[in-house]
Specification:
about 425 residues; alpha+beta; BirA Bifunctional Protein, domain 2; Rossmann fold; five-stranded mixed beta sheet; 16 strands; elongated; aminoacyl-trna synthetase; ATP-binding
Length: about 425
């Protein structure tokens, strides 16, 4: 055992569990790739000011949860706590918005970091797949992203997740609501920190998960009652497009997101089997974020889905993904000549696209066959001195137990034919 363990609130992804995480990432990414989204990868750390401006200087993420540090050269950096600001920064830096093909549609996958109280479903290091459509104000884009996330979850077999939908208004109508909400919050029995938050960004108080706060918000004014005509029309079109696609959702007039940059459409994917950490992902429109970080006006929309929480949702529904075996053929040499020949055959199999492995370490037949069983391989090739003298190897079907002799020079073609 090592002297060191993974830092508190983090985890290691190791086989066989890592195969499930990879399958979830692929399932979420697949509909994005089929819809014109290109892959983008950004650094694991950014200028701390990027998140202070984009996420919000007074948010819990920036004030309490961000891993910030200063380099020897004096640069103030932070491990990325979320993906949207980084992806938008990368798109602006590369001038993708000037190529004349808006929206710029990007997807990404990676690890993110927040200093939070560790619990099931909430870690200090977590994995997400995200998507951003940059540079277009169109209800169809908002609907597209919600539909693609729904498609991804259903492809995994998830059935009991819910989609919550709301509109946060825009710069025209939200200030009126903000004033009304602040007036309401000032009359509640809230602690000083929450009251201070209400003065800076009162919408964030609605996102406070503490029961002592939530029970006082029953009569809070609702944003939908303050939406301007343009925001009402925009939101209604999003709803109509989602409905026409056969995607079920719930209107949640109190839904807000924990980041300051959201405008108009906001949505969340929740799974009730996860308890208090029921959100598996979410997103929305962020029409002003580009200007917040020094770019031009670029209305945009996006989401991020948690890989960790999606895996927990699968477990809650008792879903086991059908994962392909990492190894299709396992080679067991008995003797030095067999070792040389079978190693060459394993290399040939890999070159033609067949997943093959080899019994390393000079194990005897019994130990090597145990390894073959553990590998999950469909076929095992066994060869000893007598087999090679006859110009054959023994090919064993690990499912049926049937064993046949196949010519050494024909074994690769035989396995190609059997494995299709």
């Amino acid at each position: 055992m090592s002297t060191f363990n993974a830092p508190k609130g983090t985890y290691d992804l190791i086989p066989p569990d890592s195969a499930t995480f990879l399958a979830v990432r692929e399932a979420i990414a697949a509909p994005l790739r089929n819809s014109g989204y290109g892959y983008v990868e950004t650094p694991g750390f950014e200028n701390v000011e990027l998140f202070a401006r984009g996420v919000g200087e007074s948010t819990d993420i920036v004030t309490k949860e961000m891993y910030a540090f200063e380099t020897k050269g004096g640069d103030k950096l932070a491990l990325r706590p979320e993906g949207t600001a980084s992806v938008l920064r990368a798109a602006l830096e590369a001038n993708l918005h000037k190529a004349g093909n808006l929206p710029v549609k990007l997807w990404y996958s990676g690890s993110y970091y927040r200093y939070e109280r560790p619990q099931k479903g909430r870690y200090r290091h977590f994995s997400q797949v995200g998507a951003e459509a940059i540079g277009a104000e169109d209800p169809a884009l908002d609907a597209e992203l919600i539909i693609l996330a729904d498609q991804a979850y259903r492809s995994l077999g998830l059935r009991t997740f819910r989609i919550l939908l709301n509109s946060l208004g825009d710069q025209e109508c939200r200030p009126v609501y903000r004033t009304a909400l602040q007036d309401f919050l000032r009359g509640l029995d809230l602690d000083e920190d929450t009251l201070r938050r209400a003065e800076i960004n009162p919408l964030r108080v609605l996102d406070d998960k503490r029961e002592s706060v939530q029970k006082q918000l029953g009569d809070a004014p609702l944003l939908r009652d303050y939406l301007c005509d343009a925001c009402k029309a925009y939101h209604e079109e999003v709803r109509e497009l989602i409905t026409a696609a056969g995607v079920a959702f719930e209107d949640d007039p109190k839904l807000v997101r924990g980041l300051d940059y959201y405008t108009r459409t906001t949505f969340e994917f929740v799974h009730d089997g996860l308890g208090s950490q029921s959100a598996v992902g979410g997103g929305g429109r962020y029409d002003g974020l580009s200007e917040m970080i020094g770019g031009p006006a670029l209305p945009s929309v996006g989401w991020a889905l948690g890989v960790d929480r999606t895996v927990l949702a699968l477990e809650a529904e008792g879903i086991e993904l059908e994962l392909p075996a990492s190894t299709s053929v396992f080679a067991v040499p008995l003797g030095e000549e067999a070792r040389r020949i079978l190693f060459a055959k394993v290399t040939e199999l890999r070159k033609v696209g067949i997943a093959a492995d080899f019994s390393y370490g000079g194990k005897g037949l019994k130990g090597a066959m145990k390894n073959a069983n553990r590998s999950g391989a469909r076929y095992t090739i066994v060869a000893g001195e007598r087999d090679l003298a006859e110009g054959v190897v023994q090919l064993k079907d690990m499912e049926s137990g049937e064993q046949t002799a196949v010519g050494v020079n024909e074994i690769v073609a035989e396995l190609e034919a059997r494995l299709g």
